């Protein structure tokens, strides 16, 4: 019960963060909401956590998506200088098809929350169970990119 409430609250705060960030609300307000999310997702570090593995993975996704959203708001203010931050940077610059291949063909959907988070953030993925939809999205974007190159 508590586990599901923490996840629901963190997801609701993440959606609010995305709206605030998109509307270019004052940075301090956005950062305050980001801090609330960090407090919720950091519950996974408590010992013992009393959280299921699924809940921990969900909190990792929410944490990564919040960090990626904040990077779009003010990259200089939120710079993750960790191994995780380096992986997020690597996945952000990775070719879309390579990223989806990493998730689905190389087993990332089972153990790579960072790659999944970036794919969700980039709009390539809604659900790790929807492999076909992810590849359709990539193919659609590739066609759009090739069309824009032809028109330029």
UniProtKB/TrEMBL annotation:
It comes from the Bacteria. This is Uncharacterized protein. It comes from Methylophaga aminisulfidivorans MP.
């Amino acid at each position: 019960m508590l586990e599901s409430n923490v996840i629901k609250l963190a997801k609701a705060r993440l959606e609010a963060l995305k709206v605030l960030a998109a509307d270019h609300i004052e940075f301090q307000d956005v950062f305050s909401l980001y801090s609330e999310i960090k407090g919720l997702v950091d519950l996974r570090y408590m010992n013992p956590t009393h959280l299921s593995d699924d809940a921990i993975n969900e909190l990792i996704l929410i944490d990564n998506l919040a960090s990626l959203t904040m990077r779009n708001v003010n990259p200089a203010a939120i710079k993750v200088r960790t191994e995780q931050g380096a992986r997020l940077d690597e996945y952000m610059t990775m070719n879309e098809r390579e990223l989806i291949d990493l998730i689905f063909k190389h087993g990332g959907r089972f153990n790579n929350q960072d790659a999944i988070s970036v794919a969700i953030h980039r709009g390539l993925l809604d659900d790790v169970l929807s492999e076909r939809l992810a590849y359709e999205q990539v193919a659609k974007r590739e066609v759009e990119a090739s069309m824009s190159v032809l028109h330029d």
